[in-house]
Design goal:
By secondary structure, the protein is of the alpha+beta class. Strands 13, 14, 15, 16, 17, 18, 19 and 20 form an 8-stranded mixed β-sheet that branches. The protein has a 5-stranded mixed β-sheet with strand order 10-9-8-11-12. A 4-stranded antiparallel β-sheet has the order 1-7-5-6, with helices on one face. About 45% of the residues lie in helices and about 15% in strands. A hairpin with a 2-residue loop joins β9 (about 330-340) and β10. The protein contains 22 helices and 20 strands. The radius of gyration is 30 Å and the shape is flat.
Length: about 700
Amino acid sequence: MVHDSPERPTPAPKPRRGSKSDLPQDDLTLDTSDVDPETSAAEEEDEARLPDASDDATEAVAEGTLSVGHAAIENAVRLAPTSPGVYRMLNAANDVLYVGKAKNVKKRLSSYARANAPLPARILRMIAATTHVEIVSTTTETEALLLEANLIKQLRPRFNVQLRDDKSFPYILISGDHWAPQILKHRGAQSRPGRYFGPFANAGAVNRTITALQRAFLIRSCTDGFFESRTRPCLLYQIKRCAGPCTREIDFPGYSELVREATEFLSGRSHAVKELLAAEMEKASGELEFETAALYRDRLAALSAIQSQQGINPRTVEEADVFAIHQEGGYSCVEVFFFRTGQNWGNRAYFPRAEKSFTPEEVLSSFLAQFYDDKPPPKLILLSHEIEESALLADALSVKAGSKVEVSVPKRGEKKELIGHALTNAREALGRKLADTATQSRLLEGMVTTLGLPHTPKRIEVYDNSHIQGTNAVGAMIVAGPDGFMKNQYRKFNIKSEGLTPGDDYGMMREVLERRFKRLLKPPEGEAARAKENDKADDDSFPQWPDLVIIDGGRGQLNAVREIFQNLGLTQVSLMAVAKGPERDAGRETLFMPDREAIKLEPRDPVLYFIQRLRDEAHRFVIGSHRKLRKKDIREAGLQEIPGIGPSRKRALLHHFGTLKEIERASIADLGKVPGVSAESARKIFEFFYAQPG
């Protein structure tokens, strides 16, 4: 889907200012070593995790409890309207059990109140737990559908189908607020002027497409500030991924034509763009301008690469979302494909939480309403299964989109083939997830046997800290569970204690653990309500309390942490320390646990390999957090923090490289070329930026 945001007047080209760095701020490769927990959940394109399977076997319901539930619903029926609305069933603790909508609320609630009605065990359990019902009237059934979806996403009732891991989708933006438009990845509110193309299934698909578009159309990706400071083209110009408008290597009309071609391609007119480029290539070749012809050839190849990566590109579907659902082993997988401007912009698998008694049609119907709660729907939605309220859903999405939205189940032709392709992907995604979960489960069960844990850990927390001679000290926590690393649960802790001796690892670990567990022991106001909501009777919610805590260190670190736990009154959390092998040899680690002999596992033991992965992930995350903090500190403090660098050398370095960031990137040899900087000074500068944290 293409969106135009309001345009502001395009500023005229500005005079160039001095800077001699060779790379734009958007590097050629993404540095994933410095993942910030606030953005990791958005940028890490992990496949959605698999929910715990719920047992939907018929359970004996106490007659008295069921009668209380029927009485509560009968009381609500007497006051219920005969108009459309949304109802919420709540238990004695005021937790929402179920959110439903109806064209006639009174009639719908009456169906639950009949004592002898043949209802599924899931419904009987819900009725038995109900103590009161809340009702919200709406003007139309369409409004009721939209409100129901919104409330389910907010409240996560245990008896509803729940869409989880619902992240925003990235778009490609060609900016419209500069004379030389920039191409970039965009998430969130579309407030910046320009053309938006999307949604794409994940950030990886956007990054690959932007890279190919740069090769094909040579549009800049650097920020406006970096653009304005250029005096010579950057490296992207040298490798033919930018036309160099910053230094007028291309004039304004020429660059505008490149932008127009890129916009045409993303708008679905790719065939016309490729024909134009092919004609220009033939013309240049005929005039013996072989370098120009080779440039057009490379641009054509880049466009072909984009379309080959997209897999299927339908001929008859301009704009559609394709949904296919597959159920197996008590789980559901919904595969979603995005088609815009006749191009495949990626697919994504979802694993909604639903009890086994839900049919594919019921899961898909509830999933769709929640999926489009915060997303613009396309003109066409193709489904693998016929849902009961497809007409109502189409009306609701049409109201939301402001234009007609069609919901259909294709029976033949290319659209049917798209559904078949999506079904295959749904089946394979669920199969992979089941296999991965089984492997992870075996590893967790192996830890129980090897380490003598009281039960299989559902949440493992691993702690590490990093610093250089006590400066920029930071601690970090990574979290793993039955579905692998839970990156949206990662946290970093900037060490704040003023009385710590530089390099006091025990003191740093004490601060980190006290801050982490005191928050759990006594959550702030507002947090308590959220914790209560998360910890209600919902087997699928990921626990906030760890079953096992792992620290990087030996017996000394273990005893220090054990003392911290005793002071905090933590007795239900298992504790383990992982000491590195001789000369840090992986595979020869020693495991320490309280009141036990040291544990040495065989180098190829799967459990040892799993523990190594946990330890290494914590180390990677804390090093990245430390480096980010250190870089910020360096940029704020300036070059005067480097030993032996006075005002004269600082001026010489800045004059030669242009920015502090480019000085940081420079090699020792490049630093040594600066007038007044000796080989020894160059080494000190380099080591200042690249010193290894402890």
